[in-house]
Amino acid sequence: MAYFTAVLAPEGSGDDRDWRSVDIDLEAGSPDELGDALRGAVDDDRPVLAVLEREDEWFALVRTEGALEVRVFVSDAVAATESAYAPLFAELPAATGQPVPTPEDSDAADAADDDADGQDDTGDAAGDTGSRGGSGVAEDVWAGDPDLLTDLGCSADVLVRLATSSTDPAEATVRVGELLGCADLLESLR
């Protein structure tokens, strides 16, 4: 599966805000490493926004602004921990405030459940697992800071709703782009 990445920086403010793309290769690394790269791509304290998508799986938004800490939001932290960008999501708190479970954690929990009852807990008779892939992970597997775009026009509620209800990461990031006023630019970069 392919990745899509884009780095955007706003110029102006409010209704007069325009966005421009920033030419930078997004390397996998910790939030601080990515933040340093994003800050180095602009020459002032403007916000810089990185958009990452893993085709058909998840989207992530990374924001930094001047010396402020890097803020990250990912729609599916469990799937993202298996990606090339896993270091970026390793320390994020999950939607429940608990650490993000890694795929290994889920496998270990499944194995412990199997050992405890001698069965493979894959769901009820109707085939409903109640989780993604039967791994025992709740449907709300987003992680990070859902408020990272509130001041730019995308509320936390909207971001969480897109993360939990959209099956197409590209569709979700386009919707975010519409709210921020950069959808056309984002689409032109695809």
Automatic annotation (TrEMBL):
Domain of life: Bacteria
Region (Disordered): 95-142
Lineage start: Bacteria, Bacillati, Actinomycetota, Actinomycetes, Kineosporiales
Stated name of the protein: tRNA adenosine deaminase-associated protein
InterPro entries with a match to the protein in the record: tRNA_Adeno_NH3ase_assoc_put (IPR023869)
Feature: compositional bias, Acidic residues: 104-123
